[in-house]
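ok trying again, last paste got cut off:
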Amino acid sequence: MNDAQRNAQAVKDLYDALGAGDLEAAGRALTPDSVLHVPGRGANTGDYVGRDAVLGFVTHAFTVTGGTLKLTVHRVLSDDETAVALTTYTASRPDRDVPLENNLAHVMTMRDGKIAEGWFHSRDQYEVDAFWGPETA
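nice, full thing came through this time. structure:
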């Protein structure tokens, strides 16, 4: 398996593990110092530094949505340094009238077959911000 294939597999493993609710397996796809950049002006935006922080972000998203968060990966593109997951995620919340369906490009820098840094790029950031709620102080 070459580096591009190994990187694509790490991304697929991450999303498969998240879909199964297996945070331990998801964590194996991340470097210990992994960073996730979440854009926007919502309550969950910011930089999540370290594997535990990234997994905490995911745990919070699953909790807030009452387990309704579903991730669908349409395609993973990768080379020896970078991977991109083209995904759709859906979720609903008991405190929101409108569910969310968001198309997302998750761009990742890879290191040694693991995700070292990631950036979310959403189809409609305003819709995403409204769903997750306003920033908290």
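cool. The mean pLDDT is 94. Residues 44 and 58 are 10 Å apart (CA to CA).
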